[in-house]
Inverse folding.
């Protein structure tokens, strides 16, 4: 959990008009950036530069906003409107006479990592990291490695399996198959969250398969071979080695971004095998006009999948949790997907947050997602 920092009022400091070195030193003593207030954040940076920019990873690109330099001072500031209860990730671009640097915010200790490195994190008024995502002494599950000899891909795949604390082979467990599972564990605290949610009884003890793709851009978007691997090779190997439930309602596919696409494709290509879907920030586009604005071939492959899905017979009873971040470029598309699934007879819960296309956004939504797909009324 993080608390909002206490800070002197920047407007009062500016109005006093003393921007000397000692005055700036005194003002910044103990101050973190950004300054948080309802509906706004104020970012601070100190140093010599020709310009300082805030770079936010939102709306499918990089949003830039310029800091203002106080006269005769090396203190820069930027105030932006925000929505309370949210977060986003960013860097600073410090532009000098010869070159520019993208840096983490030196006045902000909050960080978030992904496969490409780290970003600074801005948390708006009222945001609180879920306490169930923080280590708090719950009995720990374990991770085991399993090798799957795949004829579909002509290679041996190395997967991981999360077993809950106290696992017994004498009782069946719900199964969650997590696309990009290693990244989900590394960057979104998957194991810690499962430990905590199981310990307090929010979800039953589960087995989770942390699956990985070879070339995810190709494999997840094309879908056919991947689905054959999941259902024809990975799932039988898990069934042979671990005590997993054979009830479709207790078999869940989970994925974010292209992992959500792979989850949906697998469910429709093998109807009735998995009765639960958790689809976070999926790379889905149903609107042909919007598709024309997306040049990457991945989006066109996914669009063909969605057209086939809309023509397919309705799935056997399935529950789906569909979520998005309002600051990513696919928020409306995920709303449209939720509506399309409802038309296919799927029981859908849709959830949105004021966040971007980030692992911590997907982490924060995990409890609601699991409680929905594993809910006691799932066989309604």
């Amino acid at each position: 959990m993080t608390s909002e920092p206490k800070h002197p009022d920047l407007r009062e400091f500016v109005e006093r008009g003393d921007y000397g070195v000692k005055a700036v030193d005194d003002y910044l003593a103990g101050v973190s950036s950004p300054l948080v207030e309802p509906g706004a954040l104020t970012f601070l940076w100190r140093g010599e530069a020709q310009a300082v920019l805030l770079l936010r990873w939102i709306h499918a690109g990089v949003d830039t906003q310029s800091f203002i330099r106080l006269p005769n001072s090396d203190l820069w500031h930027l105030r932006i409107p925000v929505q309370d209860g949210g977060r986003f990730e960013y860097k600073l671009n410090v532009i000098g006479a010869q070159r520019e640097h993208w840096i983490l915010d030196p006045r902000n200790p909050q960080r978030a990592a992904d496969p490409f490195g780290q970003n600074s994190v801005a948390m708006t008024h009222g945001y609180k990291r879920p306490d169930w995502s923080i280590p708090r002494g719950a009995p720990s599950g374990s991770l085991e490695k399993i090798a799957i000899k795949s004829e579909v891909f002509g290679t041996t795949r190395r997967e991981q399996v999360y077993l809950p604390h106290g696992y017994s082979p004498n009782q069946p467990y719900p199964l969650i198959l997590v696309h990009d599972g290693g990244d989900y564990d590394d960057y979104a605290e998957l194991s810690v969250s499962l430990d905590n949610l199981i310990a307090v009884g929010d979800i039953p003890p589960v087995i989770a398969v942390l699956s990985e793709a070879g070339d995810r851009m190709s494999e997840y978007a094309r879908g056919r071979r991947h689905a054959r691997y999941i259902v024809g090779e990975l799932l039988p190997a898990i069934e042979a080695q671990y005590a997993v439930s054979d009830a479709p309602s207790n078999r869940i596919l989970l994925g974010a971004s292209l992992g959500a696409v792979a989850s949906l494709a697998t469910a429709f290509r093998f109807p009735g095998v998995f009765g639960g879907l958790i689809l976070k920030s999926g790379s889905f586009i149903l609107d042909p006009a919007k598709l024309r604005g997306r040049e990457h071939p991945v989006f066109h492959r996914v669009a063909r999948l969605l057209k086939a899905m809309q023509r397919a017979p309705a799935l056997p009873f399935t529950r789906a949790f569909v979520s998005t971040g309002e600051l990513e470029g696919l928020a409306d598309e995920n709303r449209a997907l939720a509506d399309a699934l409802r038309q296919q007879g799927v029981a859908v819960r849709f959830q949105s947050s004021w966040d971007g296309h980030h692992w911590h956004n997907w982490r924060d939504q995990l409890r609601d997602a699991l409680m929905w797909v594993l809910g006691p009324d799932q066989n309604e």
Remarks:
- The chain has two domains: 10-123, 131-373.
